[in-house]
Design a protein that fits this description.
The chain is α+β, with helices and mostly antiparallel strands. It has seven helices and nine strands. It has helices at about 5-15, 20-35, 50-55, 60-70, 100-105, 165-170, 170-180; strands at about 40, 45-50, 75-85, 90-100, 105-115, 115-140, 145-155, 185-190, 195-200. The strands form two sheets. Strands 1, 5, 6, 7, 8 and 9 form a six-stranded antiparallel sheet that branches. A three-stranded antiparallel sheet has the order 2-4-3. Strand 5 and strand 6 form a beta hairpin.
């Protein structure tokens, strides 16, 4: 092969999206994170509590109280007809929570669950922090698969997501916020005709 032909072949290999390298793996992870969207607390408003929520101090009640303490929701009173333990029915006065104007600014859709978008209060967008390492690629069934270990950061993290009461009330939020930049996650990347792609959800 002549020098000119060899140069053409080498140039053609530069930037090949199918190569198993940090640049291509990062591109695949960034594309998947962009598709999955923001981190959100899954809630549909208004949230109406019942007497059981008040008696047992339920998780829903703790969540609403935490969000109220940071100014994202406010409570109004409503009446609910309930069956009494002594027979008959009674009307209970209970709290119903809706978003404040400040809370409405965080309403959105984010990271998907079982293929469906999650609606709620969004508190930041995950970004690739760095590629830590990878294994493979190896042949798995009919595809080449690499196992990539990475860390993430959270872009434009909402201030209320750092609040201690909010983190106590919403465990997934706490784990994601505290894990940013430190927790290493492992994801399989599958080789396609267009390069590498995440085989499943990252979160």
């Amino acid at each position: 092969m002549g020098r000119a032909a060899l140069s053409i072949v080498l140039i053609g290999c530069v930037g090949d999206a199918t190569e198993p390298n940090e640049k291509n793996f990062a591109a695949a992870l960034n594309a998947s994170l962009e598709k999955e969207g923001a981190f959100c607390v899954p809630l549909q408003f208004p949230v109406a509590l019942n007497s059981g929520d008040l008696v047992v101090n339920s998780d829903r009640r703790k969540q609403m109280q935490a969000l109220e303490s940071v100014g994202l929701v406010h409570a109004t009173e409503y009446e609910l007809e309930e069956r009494s333990v002594f027979g008959g029915t009674r009307f209970a006065k209970l709290p119903r929570y809706d978003l404040t104007p400040a809370g409405a600014e965080y309403r959105g859709q984010g990271s998907r669950s079982a293929g469906e978008a999650v609606s709620g209060l969004c508190y930041g967008k995950p970004q690739l922090h760095r590629i830590v390492s990878w294994e493979g690629p190896r042949q798995v069934d009919a595809s080449m698969v690499a196992l990539v270990r990475y860390t993430y950061s959270i872009e434009t993290l909402a201030p209320w997501a750092n609040d201690a009461a909010v983190q106590r009330a919403f465990r997934p939020l706490r784990e994601r916020v505290r894990g940013a930049g430190t927790v290493e996650k492992l994801v399989p990347l599958r080789l396609t005709n267009n390069g590498w792609a995440a085989a499943g959800s990252l979160f």
